[in-house]
Write a structure and sequence with these properties.
Length: about 190
């Protein structure tokens, strides 16, 4: 059994799911397959939008996310710079996954922590650079990966696959052909693995 985890680091719900899915998969003996996609392209293609685009929904969504963070026992700070343009970040994530897989989880932790614990403005390239350097990454290597044609093509391909499979937001998990949208449905993911 495996859980395919379609995500974007700019999604606080993806962050919360990321804090829980490894434990869920380990407990069920399932493989967790990370599928980085570009949420902005998903929104554009489906006509969907972030809950933050509707002020009253955005406020309530933030409250619910805080409730889940408390339930999970993980920190969460709603980033005042949200939404973040994640094109370069998700290219970097895809590139590291493809070419430096041993560093993939470290990069995910670095970016999720920067966005959803430290609430950094990762719309600023200089701040992205400082964040990555502090985490031990080479900016030149990350930029080369993010700008590599094969990496760009892979991110586009995964995003297109997500759309073809009915994904409209992040996170979205698949167990076989069953789709589960949102970090608030991880109990259904667990049930599907049982």
């Amino acid at each position: 059994m495996k859980v395919e985890f379609f995500f974007d680091v700019g999604s606080p719900a993806s962050y919360l799911a990321w804090t829980q899915l490894p434990k869920i998969c380990a407990a069920k003996g399932a493989e967790l397959v990370f599928r980085p996609m570009l949420l902005g392209a998903i929104f554009q293609a489906t006509g969907n939008a972030s809950p933050a685009a509707v002020p009253v929904k955005g406020r309530h969504s933030g409250i619910d996310l805080g409730r889940f963070a408390k339930r999970y026992g993980v920190p969460l700070v709603m980033n005042p710079h949200f939404p973040v343009n994640t094109l370069q970040l998700m290219r970097a994530v895809t590139g590291v996954q493809m070419h430096q897989p041993e560093r993939f989880e470290h990069l995910l932790k670095t970016l999720f922590d920067a966005l959803w614990i430290d609430a950094l403005n990762l719309n600023e390239p200089a701040l992205i650079g400082r964040t990555l350097i502090r985490a031990g990454f080479s900016i030149d290597e990350i930029l080369a990966l993010a700008n590599s044609p094969d990496v760009k093509a892979q991110l586009r391909s995964t995003t297109d696959e997500a759309l073809e499979r009915g994904v409209f937001g992040a996170p979205t998990c698949f167990v076989g052909d069953q789709m589960f949208f949102g970090q608030d449905r991880l109990d259904f993911v667990e049930e599907a693995l049982a």
